[in-house]
Design a protein that fits this description.
3-stranded antiparallel β-sheet, globular
């Protein structure tokens, strides 16, 4: 997890942690491809309509802002991939890099939460326990574990930023 070392936020990642983060970031990069699938609920969550009661205004705002927002999200994910050691190791982030990672981790968690139909973080542990009891090798158990890991990693990054 992240901790403060002078002006930097530092984390030592295992090979598995690095691989999980790379896979999540790669999936996000694919989701943010040139043409967004507006029927995908994850895209709707990452790019919500600001004017829910005014379709025309929402479409106009989307037309004006979506390309820049998408490019910003893409650059965050790309930077995460650059910062991640390919075979485990150390991640060292200055405050700007750490804030970019925070936004990237938020997007990763939002996307995964939508795929898992998670509406409230307070239920994750009990849901994971229930899922493990039903089938410890299920895809859902793995995804819930990844969501929990991303949450803890993000929290450690927030705490290391506030130490500085």
């Amino acid at each position: 997890m992240f901790y403060r070392e002078g002006d930097l936020c530092v984390a030592h990642l295992s090979v598995e942690e690095s691989q999980v983060l790379r896979q999540c970031a790669a999936e996000m990069a694919e989701l943010l491809s040139d043409r967004l699938d507006r029927d995908d609920p994850v895209v709707g969550r990452l790019f919500p309509d600001v004017y829910a009661d005014d379709v025309a205004a929402a479409q106009e705002l989307r037309r004006l802002t979506e390309a820049d927002l998408k490019e910003h999200k893409r650059s965050q994910v790309a930077q995460m991939l650059v910062d991640l050691p390919p075979h485990g190791g150390e991640v060292r982030l200055d405050d700007e890099g750490a804030e970019s990672w925070l936004r990237g981790l938020t997007d990763l968690r939002l996307a995964l939460a939508m795929r898992l139909d998670i509406r409230d973080d307070t239920d994750i542990e009990s849901e994971l326990d229930d899922a493990v009891l039903r089938d410890p090798t299920s895809h859902r158990v793995g995804r819930l574990s990844i969501y929990g890991y991303l949450s803890v990693l993000q929290q450690s990054l927030i705490e290391s930023l506030t130490e500085g």
